Task: inverse folding
């Protein structure tokens, strides 16, 4: 079974803390994504990565950075957490195949609360 | 810019009723892809269907069916004879041809009561 694993299901942090959200996939996928999900807004793309050490900004990158040192791992970093970053964070991966627009495989999400 | 609108934020039905989830999209691209994903209470989004803009054939998969109409920029999803296990949040999404811009709608929460 294919798997995208997010390290924490629930996380509580304080304002100003540096926060790391980890995502690991075991499918050898080239593409990985970080989304945040807020009620009524659906999923919004924060960053994505085509391959190791490659990253592209999504729709809402402000306040976030990412790291992709190994193919299987894609980390989302909140340099200085703020209360407006309280949200559900979803990681996804996708193979780079000959067919464009392959489906995404998602993790179960990390609910982050910043107090 | 791309946009996906799911006007229904919540729908509640009784088991065995049919229900249609609406999705309207905007794009300037001539080639694009449309998706539906299901998010059950466990949180993990599950892929349901992908359609490209050149394939307007409706699709049926068991109790699920999809109606793609380019003329109205809509890609609606119907569940026939709904079941409690269908309770979830459903997302419609639109992707450009390159696949690097996937835009999700706000989601529709479907509650199926026994």
Result:
């Amino acid at each position: 079974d294919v798997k995208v694993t997010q390290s924490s299901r629930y996380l509580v942090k304080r304002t100003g803390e540096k926060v790391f959200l980890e995502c690991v996939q075991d499918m050898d996928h080239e593409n990985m994504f970080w989304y945040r999900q807020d009620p009524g807004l659906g999923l919004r793309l924060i960053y994505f990565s085509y391959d190791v050490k490659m990253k592209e900004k999504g729709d809402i990158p402000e306040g976030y950075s990412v790291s992709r040192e190994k193919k299987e791992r894609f980390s989302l970093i909140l340099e200085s957490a703020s209360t407006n970053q309280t949200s559900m964070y979803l990681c996804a991966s996708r193979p780079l195949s000959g067919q464009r627009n392959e489906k995404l495989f998602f993790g179960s999400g990390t609910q982050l609360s910043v107090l | 810019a791309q946009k996906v609108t799911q006007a229904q934020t919540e729908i509640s039905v009784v088991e065995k009723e049919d229900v249609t989830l609406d999705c309207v999209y905007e794009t300037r691209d001539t080639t694009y892809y449309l998706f539906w994903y299901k998010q059950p209470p466990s949180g993990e989004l599950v892929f349901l269907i992908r359609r490209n803009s050149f394939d307007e054939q409706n699709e049926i998969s068991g109790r699920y069916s999809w109606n793609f109409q380019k003329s109205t920029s809509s890609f609606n999803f119907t569940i026939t004879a709904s079941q409690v296990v269908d309770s979830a949040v459903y997302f419609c999404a639109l992707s450009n041809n390159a696949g690097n811009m996937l835009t999700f709608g706000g989601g529709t929460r479907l509650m199926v009561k026994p």
In short: Chain A has a mean pLDDT of 92. The radius of gyration of chain A is 13 Å.
